[in-house]
Amino acid sequence: MDKSTISNNGQTVKEKINAMLPSFSKGQKKLAEYILGNYDTAAFLTAAKLGQKAGVSESTAVRFAMMLGYNGYPQFQEAMAVLLKKRLGSVEKIEAAAGDIEQSKVLSYVLNADIEKIRLTMETIEPDAFDLLNSAGYIYIVGVRSCAPLAEFLGFYLRMINDNVRMVTTNSASEMFEQMLPINEKDVVVGISFPRYSMRTLKCMEYANNKNAEVIAITDSRNSPMSLYSSCNLLARSDMTSIVDSLVAPMSVINALIVALCMKNKERVVQKLEELNRVWSDYQVYNNDEINQLDEDLFESLRKIEE
Question: Over the chain, what is the mean pLDDT?
């Protein structure tokens, strides 16, 4: 095993922390508790950021790494990354089997893989996005190619809550910037992109960041280029050994986002739904479609037969 994955007595970083936990100082225990509970996040944090998250100084985080037997913080970070990779092994095992899967078991394989992705996604969600969207002036939503349906779904339901939702939906990069021209620091941009990442979406997020708007990334990893310009990230697993990426976990995250915002804006949502119901009723949007009319004709015919 590579030296960066273990401490000087052959233990993994998690095992070492657990073994030494009783001897840690108060600050070191804060670090240990944060890492053990959030090592999927901690693996991507600098020493300064890790210290901030745990409520200690950057120097405490560096000394903590060396106390565990690593040469420095970078080697400690590599060990956490390896631990994270092992943690995701259950998904990888499912995906590795895809090449040899029998046709009759495709449905079971895909559903189980999606279930595992949702479970892993639950462990990485940051709630900050919910507050940012709730207090936004205008909300701009960007998602292209395979992410366009996710963007449309999010936009459709956000318009039930907020009238100031703008969909950035064209295929031309220049037109996308034209639509986002009025953006300012009171606004929020939601960028949705998964591998292969969209350069158009990334450039829109960069523009929003330069205009001091809040930027929310819905993407697959903290290593995603989308994270370069985001104020917060909603991470959802999407990878699959296939020509098709799974968007089940991203859709679940978007559902949660919509439900949370609806709960915070109950009166506004109810008022808008009641207004829509009146419009649908007045203009017979759903009452007299062909299927309902066919059912009524069928029931009338049956009544005549019985008579």
Answer: 76
SS3 264: helix
Q: What is the pLDDT of residue 165?
A: 92
The β-bridge relationship of strands 139-142 and 188-192 is parallel
Question: What tokens appear for 89 in the block?
Answer: 């092994």
Q: How many CB atoms lie within 10 A of CB 250?
A: 28
Whole-angstrom distance, CA of residue 280 vs CA of residue 274: 10
Percentages helix, strand, coil for the chain (3-state, rounded to 5) are 65, 5, 30
The span from the CA of 144 to the CA of 142, in Å, is 7
**CA-to-CA distance for 22 and 29, rounded, in angstroms?**
8
Name the nearest CA neighbour of 139 among 265, 274, 224: 265
Separation in Å, CA 145 to CA 10, 132, 135: 46, 26, 29
Phi, psi of 227 (to 5 degrees): -70, -15
Gap between the Cα atoms of 162 and 179, Å rounded? 18
Lowest-confidence range among 37-41, 46-50, 203-207, 265-269? 37-41
Taking the C-alpha atoms of residue 233 and residue 190, their distance in angstroms, rounded to an integer, is 10
What span, in angstroms and rounded, lies between the C-alpha atoms of 271 and 132? 23
Sign, CA torsion 117/123/129/131: positive
3-class DSSP assignment, residue 25: coil
**Tokens coding 232:** 């917060």
Angle at 153 between CA 150 and CA 155, to 5 degrees: 105
Query: Scanning the structure block, which residue is given the tokens 């066919």?
Result: 294
| Number of other residues whose CB lies within 10 A of the CB of residue 226 | 26
Q: How far is CA 28 from CA 18, 55, 66, 228, in A?
A: 12, 10, 12, 30
In total, the chain counts a number of residues equal to 307
CA distance linking residue 258 with residue 154, whole number of Å: 7
